[in-house]
Amino acid sequence: MSFFEAAKNGFYIRIKLTPNAATCGFGGLFLYTDDSTYLKASVTTQPEKGKANKEIIRMLSKELDIPKQNIELISGATTHFKRFFVAQTLTPQLTEKLNSLIKGKKDDR
């Protein structure tokens, strides 16, 4: 099972976010108790007033080359387990970029 799945008019991404981390980046997968898979991500931002959520959207936008306004947090605003909807066609090139995040990518601000 993958951490992303195609949907009408876009795709969904599941992320397990660690805020207030030493570095920002992606890497690895987390298997939840219900067998759903999440991409692990970390941000240095504090989890207050949606700052960490905004940071992960910025990082996804940069890594996937998708406008920030096309990425919407649809669940998990106050938890570590987040689900995003991305209003973008899931092409083979985009699938490759998503899969490359599993291997780990640090954000170089």
Describe the structure.
The model has no long low-confidence stretch (mean pLDDT 92). The protein starts with a strand and ends with a strand. It has a single domain, classed as 2-Layer Sandwich (Conserved Hypothetical Protein Mth637, Chain: A), CATH 3.30.1200. It is 23% helix and 36% strand. The chain has 2 helices and 7 strands. It is globular, with a radius of gyration of 13 Å. The protein has helices at residues 51-64, 92-102; strands spanning 4-7, 10-18, 25-31, 37-42, 71-75, 81-86, 105-106. With 109 residues, it is α+β, with helices and mostly antiparallel strands.
Provide a concise account of the structure shown.
The chain is of the alpha+beta class. It has helices spanning 51-64, 92-102, and strands spanning 4-7, 10-18, 25-31, 37-42, 71-75, 81-86, 105-106.
Low-confidence segments, given as residue ranges, are none
Determine the structural class based on helices, strands and strand pairing: alpha+beta
Give helix % range.
Answer: 10-25%
Characterize the overall form: globular
Second-tier CATH architecture: 2-Layer Sandwich
N-to-C SSE string, H for helix and E for strand: EEEEHEEHE
- The CATH superfamily label reads YggU-like
Number of helices: 2
* CATH fold call: Conserved Hypothetical Protein Mth637, Chain: A
Total domains: 1
Distance between the termini: 31 Å
How does the major sheet shape up?
Answer: 7 strands, mixed
Assess the beta-strand content as a share of residues. 35-45%
Number of strands: 7
Identify the CATH class: Alpha Beta
Mean pLDDT figure? 92
Question: Gyration radius, to the nearest Å?
Answer: 13 Å
